[in-house]
Amino acid sequence: MKITPACTLFLSGCVAGTQSALNADGPAASELKSLIFLFVAVCGVVFVLVMSVMAWALVRRKNQAPGEPQTERSMGRVVTGAIVMTFLVVSFLTITSFYATNGVDRGRDNLPTITVRGQQWWWQFTYLDADPARTFQTANELHIPVGTDVRLRLEATDVIHSFWVPNLTGKQDLVPGRDNRLTLHASKAGIYRGQCAEFCGLQHSHMALLVIAEEPADYARWLESQRKTAAAPADSDAAAGKLVFMSKPCAACHTIRGTGASGTSGPDLTHVGSRSMIAAGLLENTRGSVAAWIADPQTLKPGNNMPLVPLTGEELRQLSAYMSGLR
């Protein structure tokens, strides 16, 4: 069978990539992948059967002698059989789907827990610990250890969002006032892209996240580094940028642990320089991107909650140096 280049282009997105339900790297994703194939197979069989019955009916009618009455009894049996088969197929797929999606949350209570909070239009991750002093927050990048179940507590502060990392698990909604749960498990190290899967406003399509699955030893080192307070400015530009940050409204909206800045309406920026992207996947995390975002966030992501802060060119250069150095 010849496949046109256009078909190849469309099909390539179904089987590979960092955001594909058919490239499963976790138990829940594997179950959902099997469910997809089961649905395709059952629907394919149903399609073939329906087409076969239609072909049989057309041939039968063509070969029917003129004036010969149609056999209503045989047609009645066909219709009755179709109704029964439809009920059985739909029931089978419903039950199978229920048990497959039920594995999205494995129900264990003693798992490492991360609170995921969806906001317009970014993700806040709170790594919980029995010792409150060891609890910390990050934004838009979720780190987990390979081979370990991690419990996600899903919350929303404004509208309904939906957490979806196709390679690792199915979708689960974040509903204001409701505590939903999800178990995340990565079978191998890698970077997996996720996306808000429930329309949540103007910048819904720019509400992405990365799940970074690391070997347990690497993950433990990352945890310890994230629990530390902000790094001291490395040069005079960064030191001046810190003063700019503390003197502007930035400190009222963002937290940088160890500086006195403790705002909660924006992402925690204590280690923002260590992240690979900013603005929930909109921009690569470079000093130039940071400067562009600070200078005019509404042009880059219209409708987001970050206001335009008046800065001189020198202040912008210094502040971007400080932000990039927070690793």
From TrEMBL:
Its EC number is 7.1.1.9. It is a multi-pass membrane protein. The chain crosses the membrane at residues 34-58, 78-100. Keywords: Copper, Electron transport, Heme, Iron, Membrane, Metal-binding, Oxidoreductase, Plasmid, Respiratory chain, Signal, Translocase, Transmembrane, Transmembrane helix, Transport. SUPFAM superfamilies: Cupredoxins, Cytochrome c. The keyword Ribonucleoprotein does not apply. Residues 1-23 form the signal peptide. It is an enzyme of class 7 (translocase). GO terms for biological process: ATP synthesis coupled electron transport. One of its GO terms (cellular component) is membrane. InterPro entries: CcO_II (IPR045187), CcO_II-like_C (IPR002429), Copper_CuA (IPR001505), Cupredoxin (IPR008972), CuRO_CcO_Caa3_II (IPR034236), Cyt_c-like_dom (IPR009056), Cyt_c-like_dom_sf (IPR036909), Cyt_c_oxidase_su2 (IPR014222). GO terms for molecular function: copper ion binding; cytochrome-c oxidase activity; heme binding; oxidoreductase activity. It catalyses: 4 Fe(II)-[cytochrome c] + O2 + 8 H(+)(in) = 4 Fe(III)-[cytochrome c] + 2 H2O + 4 H(+)(out). It is found in: Membrane. Residues 236-327 form the Cytochrome c domain. Residues 109-225 form the Cytochrome oxidase subunit II copper A binding domain. Gene3D superfamilies: 1.10.287.90, Cupredoxins - blue copper proteins. Belongs to the cytochrome c oxidase subunit 2 family. Subunits I and II form the functional core of the enzyme complex. Electrons originating in cytochrome c are transferred via heme a and Cu(A) to the binuclear center formed by heme a3 and Cu(B). This is cytochrome-c oxidase. It comes from Rhizobium etli.
